[in-house]
Design brief:
Layout (H helix, E strand, L loop, with lengths): L16 E6 L4 E4 L4 E4 L2 E5 L5 E3 L3 H4 L4 H4 L4 E3 L4 E3 L6 H33 L18 H14 L1 H9 L5 E7 L16 E7 L4 E7 L4 H18 L6 E4 L9 H5 L7 E4 L1 H10 L9 H12 L4 H6 L1
Length: 309
């Protein structure tokens, strides 16, 4: 239909594929308000004679963006998921259940209405079979797994976007909150999650380390400097950190030695925490009120300056 020449996806073969009949399996696809069936055809290599389904990733990746974006589903072993389905697992499962229930109820009412008309005309005798049960909606775990498969198909695109993000004003911070949520084999293997963002709110890099400081962040800093050097872009002028901002040989300054003009400053959140560290703790009931008032004092806008803007 599109008159495209598709190459064999086998690593050692690049011959042109030809049609080889309909694929024997019909896939059942989960959509936002129901299920539908999807079929494809076999494609056979003229050289190695191996057959491949038309919906395999080796074939879909060869399609131009004009046709690739029309592929409707993400394929898994047991079911398929339409790309119209949202990505948050719990809210997605609830939304799917509501949409599926509503669509099934409309079809059931339509079916019972038609059956009632046949009974009224006397063309049908006996009892009408009840409508079929609504097919069950997959669990949030399954939806999250399929979402992971969908992300993997666009992994190269995500890497390209992340590694092409720069900034003139950076902020680097480390936290333990993320590492506490790690489960499975990764649980307990990382102590810190460190992030570097720019003035636009974009994340340049995020890593997990076993320790904080130059030992844990040296490879991350080297990667950022190498990225900037390869892109031949201007080096950042300012970086906000949570500590060692007043030392000429502090950790942040020594990490980015190639950026000689880089100025290291303390970010505003940790400046505010310096005020509260000597008088209270975060668990104190007045701590939120004090922080709000402190933030208001620091970020208060001068009326005359605002008028000039």
């Amino acid at each position: 239909m599109w008159h495209l020449q598709l190459a064999c996806p086998q690593p050692l073969c690049s011959s042109i594929l030809k049609k080889a009949g309909l694929y024997r399996t019909i896939r059942r696809v989960l959509d936002i308000d129901g299920w539908y069936l999807m079929a494809t055809e076999y494609l056979e290599c003229r050289r190695c004679k191996k057959k491949v389904g038309g919906w395999s990733q080796g074939i879909v990746r060869q399609l131009p963006p004009t046709y690739n974006c029309q592929f409707p589903a993400v394929l898994t072993y047991e079911y398929e998921r339409s790309e119209n389905v949202c990505s948050l697992p719990i809210s997605c499962a609830n939304t799917l259940w509501e949409q599926h229930s509503d669509a099934w109820m409309r079809r059931a009412i339509q079916y019972l209405g038609v059956c009632e008309q046949f009974l009224a005309l006397g063309t049908t005798r006996g009892q009408i079979a009840p409508p079929p049960q609504m097919p069950p909606v997959p669990s949030p775990v399954w939806l999250l797994t399929v979402y992971g498969y969908d992300v993997l198909t666009r992994l190269d695109e995500y890497k390209a976007r992340i590694t092409s993000t720069f900034g003139s004003i950076l902020k680097m911070d480390s936290t333990k909150m993320v590492t506490k949520k790690l489960a499975g084999a990764a649980s307990g293997r990382a102590a810190w999650a460190s992030n570097v963002g720019n003035e636009h709110g974009n994340v340049l890099m995020s890593i997990l380390t076993c320790c904080e400081g130059s030992k844990g962040l040296s490879k991350m800093a080297a990667g950022l400097m190498r990225r900037c050097h390869l892109a031949e872009g201007p080096a950042p002028q300012l970086i906000y950190v949570d500590c060692d901002c007043c030392k000429q040989d502090g950790v942040s300054k020594t990490l980015f030695l190639e950026w000689e003009q880089l100025i290291v400053r303390l970010d505003i959140w940790h400046l505010m925490r310096r005020f509260t560290s000597g008088v209270t703790t975060e668990s104190h009931e007045l701590d939120p009120t004090f922080m709000r008032q402190l933030s208001y004092c620091i970020f208060k806008v001068d009326a005359e300056d605002a008028r000039r803007l």
